[in-house]
Amino acid sequence: MDLYKTIQILHTERERLTKLIAYLEHLKTSKAEQSRRKPQSRRGRKRMSEAERREVSDRMKKYWAARKGPAGGGKASAPDEPQAPPTAVTA
Fold first, then answer.
1. How far apart are CA 88 and CA 36, in angstroms?
2. How many CB atoms lie within 10 A of CB 68?
3. What is the pLDDT of residues 18-74, one digit of tens each?
4. Phi-psi category of 84—alpha, beta or left, where left has phi over 0 and alpha has psi -120 to 50?
5. Measured between alpha carbons, how far is 61 from 68 in angstroms, rounded to an integer?
6. SS (H, E, C) the chain
């Protein structure tokens, strides 16, 4: 085999490997960048505006005032009829 031809083959192979390495490094860096990015859509709980918080506050104040009854405090009144104790469930 001719030495010149062998050198040509090795240079061609080196160029091919250099391009392949550059491509793989590009893939590695682009995937790393993608993992650092924030997701496009925000997930989780919706934030309430000040007006919405005020509405909820007023609604809950009315709810608890109704639960407390006209006495305005203490425990809720006892039921008219006594309730039977809960039954134990056996498995």
1. 54
2. 13
3. 999 999 988 888 766 666 666 666 677 888 899 999 999 999 999 999 998 776 555
4. beta
5. 11
6. CCHHHHHHHHHHHHHHHHHHHHHHHHHHHHHHHHHHCCCCCCCCCCCCCHHHHHHHHHHHHHHHHHHHCCCCCCCCCCCCCCCCCCCCCCC
What's the predicted TM-score (pTM) here? 0.34
For residue 46, is it left (φ>0), alpha (ψ between -120 and 50) or beta? beta
Question: What's the Rg (C-alpha) of the chain?
Answer: 37
CB atoms within 10 A of CB 34: 8
